[in-house]
């Protein structure tokens, strides 16, 4: 009996990951309708690829935005590689998705990954993308918990190429 339950859970996780990978919001809600706790497992595991991480990797913006509405905490969760969904979106070159994440929660830029350079990597990509937008000055001038701006971090980490975008 326990094996049957485990097989069902494995199938749900597979379907959920497939929905995230393909960006299928309808399948997401079908799974939620069948089991209202289908996303609970991800809350219980400290480091895990959530459906939001998977959608960020695949560039499925609509699915990712829906997931952020349902489970905003997933945006701050790190996977086994120490990456948040924002870090993954930036790493994969999904700039539009990264911007949408920040539209929903601009504090996501402060989520620390496996090393603090992840924050700087995110800021470098965003600065290149944002320099023509209203978000630019807001993001560049945000102060972290140590009182540093993105430009100060770039100088501190000896990455002068980041300063060229200011």
TrEMBL record:
SUPFAM superfamilies: Ankyrin repeat. ANK repeats lie at residues 81-102. It comes from the Eukaryota. InterPro entries: Ankyrin_rpt, Ankyrin_rpt-contain_sf. Keywords: ANK repeat. Transmembrane segments: none annotated. Signal peptide: none annotated. PANTHER family: ALPHA-LATROTOXIN-LHE1A-LIKE ISOFORM X1 (PTHR24128:SF46), HOMEOBOX PROTEIN WARIAI (PTHR24128). This is Uncharacterized protein. It comes from Gossypium darwinii.
């Amino acid at each position: 009996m326990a094996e049957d339950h485990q097989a069902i859970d494995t199938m749900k996780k597979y379907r959920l990951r497939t929905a995230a990978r393909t960006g299928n919001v309808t399948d997401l809600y079908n799974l939620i309708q069948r089991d209202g706790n289908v996303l609970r497992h991800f809350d219980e595991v400290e480091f895990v690829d959530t459906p939001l991480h998977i959608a960020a990797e695949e560039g499925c913006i609509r699915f990712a935005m829906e997931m952020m509405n349902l489970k905003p905490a997933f945006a701050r969760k790190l996977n086994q590689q120490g990456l948040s969904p924002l870090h993954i979106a930036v790493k994969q070159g999904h700039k539009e998705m990264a911007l949408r994440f920040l539209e929903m929660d601009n504090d996501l830029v402060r989520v620390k990954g496996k090393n603090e350079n992840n924050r700087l990597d995110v800021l470098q990509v965003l600065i290149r993308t944002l320099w023509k937008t209203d978000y630019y000055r807001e993001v560049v001038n945000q102060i972290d918990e140590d009182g540093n701006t993105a430009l100060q971090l770039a100088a501190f980490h000896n990455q002068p190429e980041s300063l060229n975008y200011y």
